[in-house]
Design brief:
The protein is mainly alpha-helical. The protein folds into 2 domains: 50 residues, Orthogonal Bundle (Arc Repressor Mutant, subunit A), CATH 1.10.10; 123 residues. The protein is built from 9 helices and no strands. α1 packs across α2, α1 packs across α6 and α7 crosses α8. The longest helix has 24 residues. The chain is elongated. The N terminus is likely disordered. GO terms for molecular function: DNA-binding transcription factor activity; transcription cis-regulatory region binding. This is Transcriptional regulator, AcrR family. Keywords: DNA-binding. It comes from hydrothermal vent metagenome.
């Protein structure tokens, strides 16, 4: 079932940050329940259904999330953070040349999408509906800037490379997610990623 359309155009933050372990686990269970609903599509993406799936009271949910929009924002922010942390770990490690680094970045990007293909596809599909497309775009721009600075390459070329790869991966998620981790697909994707870098000025 599709989520309702939101009029908000910016990222929605949680009402308060969980501090104690019990609160952290509660928020985690809410996000896991929300992710399950998105992946399966068998229930409406509403606070009542999410709370029921998580096994928590609606009052407990509202302590941390003001509405379903805020939960969607948290899921997207979590997805973005996972991608960023994986990329930063690779960039902080020494490599045998730029080609090896680019390939490892590519593999990390594919893994981040392939490990939960249905959820990732739904997050990207619904981000504009919830007014959260800018969150994804800003994360992509920031990642391009970090990679460009680390590798000494033009940021515009890196951004074009990321956008090309992302487009192909998202299309594959919708049509044949099992192909994402095949060696032949990775080789073709690497060629796509390298094309903008070979024309750098």
């Amino acid at each position: 079932m599709t989520a309702r359309k939101s009029e908000k155009t910016s990222t929605i933050t949680t009402r308060k940050t969980p501090q104690q372990q019990r609160a952290i686990l509660l928020v985690k269970s809410i996000l896991q329940a929300a992710a399950h609903i998105l992946e399966t599509g068998t229930e409406p993406f509403t606070t009542n259904h999410i709370a029921k799936r998580a096994g928590v009271s609606i009052g407990s949910l509202y302590q941390y999330f003001q509405n379903a929009d805020a939960i969607m924002a948290a899921l997207i922010e979590q997805h973005v953070a996972d991608e960023r942390e994986a990329a930063e770990a690779i960039l902080a490690t020494s490599h045998d040349g730029q080609n090896q680094m680019m390939r490892e970045l590519l593999l990390a990007f594919v893994d981040a999408h392939a490990n939960a293909p249905r959820l990732t596809a739904r997050l990207h599909e619904l981000a504009p509906v919830f007014g959260l497309h800018k969150t994804l775009a800003d994360a992509r721009d920031a990642q391009a800037s970090t990679i460009a600075q680390t590798m000494g390459l033009p940021e515009a070329n890196i951004l074009l490379s990321i956008m090309a790869v992302e487009g192909v991966v998202l299309a594959m998620l919708a049509s044949n997610p099992a192909m994402l981790k095949s060696d032949s697909f990775i080789d073709q994707l690497y060629a796509i990623a390298q094309a903008p870098l070979e024309t750098q000025s």
